Amino acid sequence: MSDTSYEKLAAVLDTLPNGFPSTEDSIEIKLLRKIFSPDEAELFCDLKLSFETVDQIAARTERPLQGLEDALLTMKGKGQIFGVDLGGINIFKMVPWVFGIYELQLPHMDKELAEMCEEYMKVYGPQFLANKPQLMQVIPIESEIKGVQEALPYEKVSNIIENSQSMMYFDCICKKEKNLIGDPCDRPMQVCTGYAPIPGVFDDHPYGKTMNKEEAYALLDKAEEDGLVHLTWNVKSGQFFICNCCGCCCGVLRGINELGIDASKVINAHYYAEIAADECTACGVCADERCQVNAIEAGDDAYRVIREKCIGCGLCITTCPVEAISLIRKPEDQIEIPPTDELEWYTKRAQLRGVDISKYT
Predict the structure, then answer these.
(1) What stretch of H or E contains 180?
(2) What is the CATH code for 270-334?
(3) pLDDT (tens place) for every residue of the chain, 361 residues total
């Protein structure tokens, strides 16, 4: 049963829009064995990408109701599935490998798992990050887009914060993984944030700490000061996280820096930076200390932005001593409008990958 269960789970994950490619040494099966028991793998395969109550899952799958909720709560606690307590009513859904199971392993990540994830990234990264719609979109430093053009709601940090009633912060899974494999980053680790439109969602969270709006803004301001890029899900509505990312640890930004994938495929960016050559003093702060994707290079007398590599985060602007850098909104014909919500994102990604997800939606 064991091998069959994990192979079945791997096939389901690869049928989901995000994919879960096989490898020559079956590292993906080893990962699943590390995270799931055979019974948990089988139960995962019976879930959907949309939330269901325990009664709905039992009725649809013909699984016995007795013990089902306990099993699902255990899986939620082990970071295998996603679940929410709606005032005493639990709802559950399956999640892809990324964004999903991998990130939910934060409290369970050990050196062995970190090494396996790092190895799998070599295969998973190229197939996932080179396919659209992009997983992430950049949210520029908000103070730098005010004079450009009125930003759309999904381009503003404040929109996510102001529309949330529950907020928390927690360790970055990417930084934790890099620490465990002996390649730590010197930037702060507690920089990932979660948001929900329902009060109390993150109360007593096992690995996150709740915060209020003022604390959320302060955390993001500190992230900007530390040179971290604000990234969120590439949808118009329903964003539930803001990651604050560095180019050395972030699995997404490493797709650009280490895997060599074109930045426009990896990240949806609505802006780009531009350096005024006649004002630049060639101090190099923007290139050496701020840019997380190596999109700025030295010229003869001034630095210049490599337009096709720039992700429009705005980090280079805030520390320019002569204010020679500005953020420019892309022409409308170059802007990729994000999918409306989670379901549209899944649907578009599934269509582009040629997989049928109707069974799971």
Answers:
(1) helix 173-180
(2) 3.30.70.20
(3) 458 999 999 999 999 999 999 999 999 999 999 999 999 999 999 999 999 999 999 999 999 999 999 999 999 999 999 998 888 899 999 999 999 999 999 999 999 999 999 999 999 999 999 889 999 999 999 888 765 566 778 889 999 999 999 999 999 999 999 999 999 999 999 999 999 998 988 998 888 999 999 999 999 999 999 999 999 999 999 999 999 999 999 999 999 999 999 999 999 999 999 999 999 999 999 999 999 999 999 998 999 999 999 999 999 999 999 999 999 999 999 999 999 999 999 999 999 999 999 999 9
Q: Where are the domains of the chain?
A: 2-97, 127-266, 270-334
- What would the two tokens of residue 30 be? 């080893």
pTM: 0.93
Q: Which of these, 196, 226, 225, 224, lies nearest to 211 by C-alpha position? A: 196
Cβ-based neighbours of 98, under 8 Å, separated by 6 or more: 18, 124, 128, 135, 251
Residue 172 pairs in a beta bridge with none
- Could you tell me if 96 and 80 are in contact, meaning their C-beta atoms sit under 8 angstroms apart? no
Q: Are strands 52-53 and 89-93 parallel, antiparallel or unpaired?
A: antiparallel
What span, in angstroms and rounded, lies between the C-alpha atoms of 298 and 294? 11
CATH number assigned to the domain with residue range 2-97, chosen from the 4 options 1.10.10.10, 1.10.645.10, 3.40.50.2000, 3.40.50.300: 1.10.10.10
Q: How many CB atoms lie within 10 A of CB 279?
A: 12
Which residues are CB-neighbours of 134 under 8 A, at least 6 positions away? 234, 265, 266, 267, 268, 336
